Recover the amino acids of this structure.
């Protein structure tokens, strides 16, 4: 176990206590909550005020958190790059499944591919970074739609150019809505030759520190490779990968 610096540990404890009280606390209250002597609290509070992490309400004399911690956290979040954060996990997923892995983000009623990782020997799949595809017939698109409201799903449908890419493409809204119910239960969506004949794709969402959907990932391959047992293995690996990326982005469920 790493050795703690007592003064730093106590200061952080005070900040954590104050974070639970929007209207602030007095010295005696902080002392009780943090289990620290009043003189220690007073000394550390003054230091935190000098460094800009704590403010004092001049009317109530209570101490409250400033926005400095938020500002520091925001700098970290702003520098986060979805592709660079996700890439190690996408590579790990590709190695586990030996199939093509995609990362995409939503743009209006479409998904846009922003990363693609594939094994050395893989099927030829007509996807590339920057390419967009409709949400209603792709695994990643349907995974995102499953977490939207009915009104949002309807709007996406209305704004999409609904057409059959294959004989398996769903071109009926009621069929899609039924499919989305299944997606919500399983946490992943399936594109069973809906975009390309002979290609199966399994997709799920990733979320960020604001608990928002910020993208989706998928595993794609030949229908010949996607046996029932392998699909179960892929679905578990896919969900595990999505959870890891989401956690890295600050998501907490």
């Amino acid at each position: 176990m790493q050795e703690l610096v007592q003064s730093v540990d106590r200061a952080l404890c005070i900040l954590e206590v104050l974070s639970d009280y929007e209207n602030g606390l007095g010295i005696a209250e902080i002392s009780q909550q943090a289990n620290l002597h009043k003189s220690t609290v007073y000394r550390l509070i003054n230091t935190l005020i000098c460094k800009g992490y704590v403010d004092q309400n001049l009317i109530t004399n209570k101490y409250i958190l400033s926005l400095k911690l938020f500002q520091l956290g925001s700098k970290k979040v702003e520098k986060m790059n979805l592709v660079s954060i996700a890439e190690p996990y996408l590579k790990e997923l590709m190695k586990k499944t030996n199939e093509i892995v995609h990362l995409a983000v939503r743009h209006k009623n479409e998904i846009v591919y922003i990363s693609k990782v594939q094994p050395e020997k893989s099927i030829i799949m007509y996807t590339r970074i920057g390419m967009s595809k409709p949400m209603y017939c792709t695994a990643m698109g349907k995974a995102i739609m499953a977490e939207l409201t009915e009104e949002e799903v309807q709007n996406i449908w209305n704004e999409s150019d609904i057409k059959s890419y294959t004989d398996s493409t769903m071109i009926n809204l009621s069929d899609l809505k039924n499919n989305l119910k299944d997606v919500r239960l399983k946490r992943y969506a399936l594109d069973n030759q809906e975009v390309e004949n002979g290609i199966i794709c399994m997709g799920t969402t990733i979320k960020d520190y604001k608990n928002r959907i910020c993208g989706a990932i998928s595993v794609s391959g030949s229908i010949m490779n996607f046996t029932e047992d392998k699909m179960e293995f892929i679905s578990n690996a896919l969900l595990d990968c999505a959870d890891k990326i989401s956690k890295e982005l600050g998501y907490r469920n």
In short: The mean pLDDT is 92.
